[in-house]
Amino acid sequence: QEKLAESGGGLVQPGGSLTLSCAGSGFTFSNWHMSWYRQAPGQQREFVARIYSSDLGTTYADAVKGRFTISRDNAKNTVYLRMSSLKPEDTAVYYCTAAELHWGKGTLVTVSS
User: Fold this and answer.
1) Exposure pattern of 23-39 as b/e (b: 16+ CB <10 Å)?
2) How far is the C-alpha of 18 from the C-alpha of 30, rounded, in Å?
3) Are strands 107-111 and 10-12 parallel, antiparallel or unpaired?
4) Along the chain (113 residues), what's the average pLDDT of each consecutive run of 10 residues?
5) Do 64 and 49 contact (CB within 8 A), yes or no?
């Protein structure tokens, strides 16, 4: 059974950094493009970043471009989201997904002083 498990969320001050991890199991991780989405309180879930399986190309939402970096380690079946220069508006539950078909349960990131 396909499973995704996020970790690494927590409380961080504005301007700080945090790295999220998402471990996949039950499917051939290296074959799938992987993405991060987030959902802030009272808001719809929104796209954050994607990394492709073939050429490891990446794409980002404008709101995080230049501050967030997505990467993957296929040997560890893990995708990462390095977040820096965090802002209060980055506060959300962050989800990873495999091709928008399989989803993790999310990890909460709170940016506050």
Assistant:
1) bbeebebeebbbbbbbe
2) 24
3) parallel
4) 95 98 94 97 97 91 98 96 98 97 97 97
5) yes
